[in-house]
Amino acid sequence: MERQKKREELISERTDAKIKHVILNQKKDKKAAKYLNSQVPYPFTSREAYERSLRQPLGKDWNTNESHKKLTQPKVKTRVGQIIDPIEKKKEKKHKDA
Fold this sequence. Notes:
Helices cover about 35% and strands about 0% of the residues.
């Protein structure tokens, strides 16, 4: 009896307790954890705005041809075979106030 009560209590604490024929894995996936972001990427200020941008479809089926080109256009254009110089760090000038 006591064992059955304890089992019922543990089952009721689970997130999948109210869903029949479903068992949710509640363990943390260590391999997938390294791909999760702890912070929101730069241009976004909130998590909701970032997720909203990910939900926007980019395909031609959902957008016009012009908007599809604009959404998928690369930010930097170069010709094929053109050598791209590496980015150089600029040295900051120190100002002396007298």
